[in-house]
């Protein structure tokens, strides 16, 4: 109770003391101070608001700067990643380029179609052989003995007769030509299937090439597609022949290429020697207004010369001689009074430098052959080296090796199928090229006579692979593995490989016809062989299927 009373008294005293009426002088300015305080508070509030706005602006600027820095960092990181990615692609491209270059070098060393004798490589091929009844060894041996072997004697007699007559005809040709103005004709050489002993289908035709050279003081300067100057793809395998004076520089003098002034004189050539009349070059069988040998002019000259030569010696023979083809320089046919005839080709060629490679004026045409670029472009033939290579390899093979037999059987089957369904893009030269590749790839013991069936299958499978890829490369061009004993020119070994199937890429209809004929030949193979093998039963044949041409 006393405590509560004390608290009440203390409260009353405090109230009385703090009442404003007791201190009027001290509290008289309170209203004025209040307005001043309010004004200061407003000013403070305004300064705080401005400070807040300034701080917000600084924060916004810092955030923008931070975002810009983050964006720049992202761009920099992306550029680094892009650079790393680009460097990776650049390195990968370089690796791919090096691999391609290494592969191309292997290509030029002769590995482009080297099957290496591996059976595993051949196992992935031969898709067209599924369901095909392949003749066994007994059937193949009987067929070869009865149908093909008997033609060897006929070929030998025909070669002897044609060569003797050709030598006599060329000797007469030399006698009727002007030795001071006409071309000089050398001795002929036999090339092709008749002289490699694998021709099987009649009529037998001997192919003879006749090298010729210009009269003195002229000479031929040959240029090939692989001699350095760029040739378009359709001119690969061709070359040109320039007729020059023997004392003329190979590149020619500048006075022949530039018009000199009337008061200027070439110190190397006189006015007489530097000017060649157009008629003089035409007499040298050149294309009009050029120094390049013209194949058409050569054909006309050779046909006229052969005609004159035959007129001189025709009284010695009891048969007639005529041209079987007018668009070929020496497609000749001997006609006997009995009605029989013998055909042979006598084709003028130009020797390439000191080798046995020749420029041939008119190459036998086929459905696959492309148009010759011009009459001044001459095709190169390696027929002499092909014959020598077969002879060289034959010395290392077992007795009675089956390599020639394989080519003969395949040539017969293809020719027989073409007679049923019409011609295709394949030629006997393509078949021989396949054999040359396999002869180089397989060891000698693989060509024993008892392995005829296996090697024939290899040739067919290899040919099928080439048709699928549209690639069959020339055996000699770009092949670094040509035996040194042949003395083959290095310039052709180092050249880019020449694809003999390139026309297939450009002519689809010919390619389709060729593939169809090849597959049809495979299906008809047993029937075609058994048809000429009398004592072999025909139980496994279903008849020869024909295709509408």
From TrEMBL:
Gene name as annotated: Itprip
Lineage summary: Eukaryota, Metazoa, Chordata, Craniata, Vertebrata
Listed PANTHER family: CELL FATE DETERMINING PROTEIN MAB21-RELATED (PTHR10656), INOSITOL 1,4,5-TRISPHOSPHATE RECEPTOR-INTERACTING PROTEIN (PTHR10656:SF8)
UniProt GO cellular component terms: nuclear outer membrane; plasma membrane
InterPro entries (UniProt xref): ITPRIP-like (IPR026250), Mab-21_HhH/H2TH-like (IPR046906), MAB21L/cGLR (IPR024810)
Function, in words: Enhances Ca(2+)-mediated inhibition of inositol 1,4,5-triphosphate receptor (ITPR) Ca(2+) release.
Cell wall biogenesis/degradation found in the keyword field: no
Family statement drawn from the similarity comment of this UniProt entry: Belongs to the ITPRIP family.
Organism: Grantiella picta
Protein name: Inositol 1,4,5-trisphosphate receptor-interacting protein
Transmembrane segments: none
